[in-house]
Write a structure and sequence with these properties.
Distance between the termini: 24 Å
Number of helices: 9
Structural class: alpha+beta
Strand content: 5-15%
Number of strands: 12
Radius of gyration: 59 Å
Shape: flat
Largest sheet: 8 strands, mixed
């Protein structure tokens, strides 16, 4: 593919993709464009362009799918094998990013930047100018970054000795540079040297036969170590099985009371402890029986007093209900008497008012004087009759109140009597139960102490019984109960002896193995691995650059 076509692709990329996609579709003053350019000796370059389109502008353009459908098919028809594009996944959900990237391509005159050779301080250098800046001023953000072998001079921000950047520049970016070497000899020489060293080292080891010899010794030693570890685990397992069988043998011998003179002392200690335990158990049974009887008597007495209390309390509740009802009636009668008294007072006031008006009418010359006098007299008479009626009703209520009040005293006397009986029963109950509760507490404490003593004796006996097994297996007293366990212990001892011999043999082999050969083999392998890793890292670095 000719250089002019490559240049047209780049121009198409900037003007069609940038202008049409970002500005024309979404409006000017939005979007971003970051251009990353690397220049190499031999007039070669690599270009990476990252374009950002805001979400709201992308929606105006029809959304990401519509945008890519419209732009990239046409873009792909212009791009060749030297160019690739991809959408960049970003955590920034408000902007969509796209990357267009070239492989190493030839620089030509129709490029987006100028590239002129000239002498700079008596040395060969190149002047770089980014010539398309005027067409990118509409973007909200744009930047240009240049990578070279060495930056001698520029009007941008120099990041390091071989990188300079321009962010939203308003003047044409330029730089005087020495390009990167198209072939990086240092990594190649390093790779070659390390490769020769690797091959030579391996060849010497193989030719001398040392690597094989060391490897065989190391392999044999590893096998022995693995076998020794496995046998060590099996031996521990069998030793634990043997210890469990011997412990079980001691318990069986004691349960069956198998005696032998060889362990007379320990057997006698166990018998003495067992005798103490039995005596304490017999005492415990008696005290627990006595404690049960006292508790039974206490529950019986408590039940009798509780029944009496329940009867008196139920009767007191009924009498209290009657007292409450009588008090309620007295309160209601008081309210009615008060209401009647208030009505009579009001009626006396009305009579006084009528009499005053009657006197005024009698002194007047009103033509209706006689009828008015008669009317006031009738009103006074009616109110007086009502007063008499209220007075009679109030007297009746007073009599009822006196009758209710007279009934309160016997009810209250009955309540007081019942309360005295309840207090008496509670006192008698406490007096009767107190010594029994004290006796129960003392017996319970004695039971607890006896159980603790028995438990302490059993704890002393447990290790003695377990240790008895080792004495029994040595004495081997005849007993049908123990013969099966004898056989199991003999079988396990035989297995343990066999494994121990084999394990010790492997340990001896490991101790007499040529440790220097093993060490040399490990060092050789580590050295070869180190060289191989170094070669792989240098190759990866070379390919990446």
């Amino acid at each position: 593919m000719d250089n002019n076509r490559i240049s047209r692709k780049i121009i198409y990329l900037f003007f069609i993709f940038s202008l049409s996609s970002i500005c024309f579709l979404t409006g000017c003053g939005v979007g971003s464009l970051d251009t990353d350019i690397t220049v190499y000796s031999g007039n070669y370059t690599k270009i990476i362009m990252t374009i950002g389109v805001p979400e709201e502008q992308m929606q105006i353009a029809g959304g990401p799918q519509e945008f890519e459908k419209e732009v990239f098919p046409e873009l792909e028809s212009e791009l060749g094998e030297e160019w690739t594009w991809r959408k960049i996944e970003s955590k920034n959900s408000t902007t969509h990013f796209y990357e267009i990237k070239s492989s190493k391509i030839k620089i030509n005159e129709d490029e987006i930047f100028t590239w002129d050779e000239f002498q700079y301080n008596n040395r060969k250098a190149y002047r770089f100018e980014f010539t398309e800046i005027d067409d990118l001023q509409y973007l909200e953000n744009f930047s240009v970054t240049l990578h070279a072998g060495n930056i001698l001079e520029s009007n941008g921000t120099q990041v390091d000795s071989d990188t300079v950047t321009w962010i939203n520049p308003r003047t044409t970016p330029y730089a005087i540079v020495i390009p990167k070497g198209s072939i990086q000899w240092i990594p190649i020489l390093a790779i070659g040297a390390l490769s020769l060293l690797f091959v030579a080292f391996l060849f010497i080891l193989l030719l001398s036969g040392k690597l094989k010899k060391w490897g065989e010794i190391t392999l044999s030693s590893s096998k022995w170590q693995l076998q020794a570890t496995k046998l060590g685990g099996e031996r521990k397992k069998i030793e634990q099985e043997k210890a469990n069988l011997i412990t079980n043998l001691g318990n069986q011998a004691w349960s069956a009371r198998v005696y032998h003179a060889d362990y007379d002392e320990q057997y006698s200690v166990l018998e003495n402890l067992e005798t103490q335990s039995k005596e304490l158990n017999e005492k415990l049974v008696k005290i627990e029986s006595q404690l049960g009887l006292v508790r039974e008597e206490r529950n019986k007495i408590d039940k009798e007093y509780t029944t009496q209390l329940n009867g008196f309390q139920a009767e007191a509740k009924e009498v209290n209900t009657r007292l409450s009802q009588a008090q309620t009636k007295i309160s209601t009668t008081d309210k009615q008497i008060t209401r009647l008294a208030q009505e009579q007072t009001k009626m006396h006031s009305e009579i006084q008012t009528f009499r005053t008006k009657l006197s005024e009418v009698e002194l007047s010359d009103s033509p209706e004087k006689d009828s008015q006098i008669l009317s006031y007299k009738n009103a006074i008479s009616a109110v007086e009759n009502s007063i008499i009626s209220r007075a009679s009703e109030s007297e009746t209520l007073q009599n009822e109140k006196i009758e209710f009040e007279s009934s309160l005293e016997p009810i209250q006397d009955q309540i007081n009597l019942l309360n005295q009986k309840i207090d008496q029963v509670k006192g008698d109950q406490k007096s009767s139960l107190s010594p029994l509760d004290q006796n129960i507490a003392e017996l319970s404490m004695e039971v607890k102490n006896l159980k603790n003593e028995i438990s302490s004796i059993r704890q002393k006996m447990s290790p003695l019984i377990n240790n008895l097994g080792s004495l029994v297996i040595n004495a081997r007293p005849e007993s049908e109960n123990l013969s099966s366990t004898y056989q199991q212990i003999d079988r396990v001892k035989s297995q343990l002896t066999s494994i121990s011999i084999e394990h010790d043999l492997l340990k001896t082999r490991l101790e007499t193995a040529d440790k220097s050969a093993i060490r040399n083999f490990i060092i050789s392998i580590i050295g070869l691995l180190f060289l191989a890793i170094a070669i792989i890292v240098l190759v990866a670095f070379f390919l990446a650059t």
